[in-house]
Amino acid sequence: KSKMDVDQSTWEEPPTKILNYTINNWSSCSGNYLPDNIHEDKPFDQSSRWSSDSNHPPQFLTLKLERIAVVQSILFGKYEKNHVCNLKKFSVYGGLNDDNMMLLFDGGLKNDNVKEMFMMKHTIKGHMFPCGLVKIMPLQSWGPSFNFSIWFVQLQGWEDPGVVTPCLHWFNSYRENEAVRLCLKHFREHNYTTAFKALQLVTGAKLEHPLLTALHDKLVLHGDYDACESVIEQAIEEGLFSDYISHLDYTPSWGRVCFHDDSLGPEHQPGMRGGHQMCIDVHAEMIYLFGGWDGNFDLADMWCYNIATNQWTCLFKNTTEDNGPCPRSCHKMCIDTDRRQIYTLGRYLDSSMRTGDALKSDFYVFDIPSCTWTLICEDTATECGPKLIFDHQMCMDISQHVIYVFGGRILTSTSDRQIEPQFSGLYSYHCPTNTWRIIRVDCCGLAGPSSIRSRIGHSMVFHEKTRQLYVFGGQRMKEYLSDFFTYNVDTDEVEILSDGSKADGCQIPAAGFTQRATIDTELNEIYVLSGLSKDKEKREENVRNSFWVYDIERNKWCCIYKSETGKSSTWTKVPPHEPCPRFAHQLVYDPIRKVPQPLSIRFLLLFLRFSFVFIACLCGFFRNIICSEGTPGCLISPILDSMISGPLSW
Question: pLDDT per residue over 389-399, tens digit each?
Answer without folding.
Answer: 999 999 999 99
